[in-house]
Design brief:
about 230 residues; alpha/beta; about 30% strand; Rossmann fold
Length: about 230
């Protein structure tokens, strides 16, 4: 039976994750607890290799913890089989990654519509156009990725993440490949998304980038600690 609890938009308790590298065991997470409210913009900071992306992937159901539990809108991810988990990721979670992961043969509109196309939504392209307009790219809907700048491609990736109106957007170094002006634009769009009521969880190694969030936590040695803004 699927465990339900009245909770934050996304929550995790006692997360442990260990990787094996040759004969060495690397403990990426050592008992992480985290709770993010609906409409909150949380930044997770830490040095490269600190486990930030590992934590984000576990929160998004892209990886499973060795121990611990994750809830999205009160539903325990461990109770979901692979098909149900894929459906939840597609419908209730949005992902914005450092690399844009756009399909080169599809237009911006088709890339933004991709989660809806997988679901067979008849209004997929109409909703994708609205999502592109939301990120300021309505006029570029017919362009393919090669015709777009890096910042425009990241906006398409954000439009794709938002097209299903997910409860939570998970952003992994979303400005890592962008210049300072374009980074600012993406961060402002993420902040506006949180102000519209959607939850943002962003990992970054950059303190200035983290400063756009409502709350900052740091990850070091597998543990989280609250950090001042």
């Amino acid at each position: 039976m699927n465990a339900q609890r009245v909770a934050a938009a996304i929550e995790a308790t006692a997360l442990v994750k260990t990787y094996t590298q040759g004969d060495e065991e690397i403990r990426a997470l050592r008992g992480v607890d985290i709770s993010v409210a609906a409409g909150e913009f949380l930044a997770i900071t830490g040095a490269s290799g600190s486990g930030k992306s590992t934590l984000l992937h576990i929160l998004g159901g892209l990886d499973r913890p060795d121990e611990g539990q994750v809830w999205v809108e009160g539903s325990a991810l461990s109770d979901l089989d692979d098909e149900a988990l894929a459906l939840l990721r597609r419908r209730r979670l949005g992902f914005v990654l450092q690399f844009f992961n756009l399909l080169p043969t599809l237009t911006a509109e088709e890339n933004a519509a991709f989660p809806l196309l997988l679901d067979g939504a008849p209004d997929a392209l109409d909703r994708a156009r609205l999502s592109l307009e939301r990120v300021g790219l309505g006029a570029r809907a017919a362009h393919r990725p090669a015709q777009l700048s890096g910042g425009e491609q990241q906006r398409v990736a954000l439009a794709r993440a938002l097209v299903t109106e997910p409860a939570v957007v998970l952003a992994d170094e979303p400005t890592g490949n962008l210049d300072s002006k374009t980074s600012l634009e993406i961060l402002e769009l993420l902040k506006e998304t949180a102000e519209d009521g959607q939850t943002i969880v962003m990992v970054t190694h950059d303190d200035k980038t983290a400063g756009f969030a409502d709350r900052i936590v740091g990850l070091a040695d597998g543990f989280l600690e609250v950090r001042p803004k």
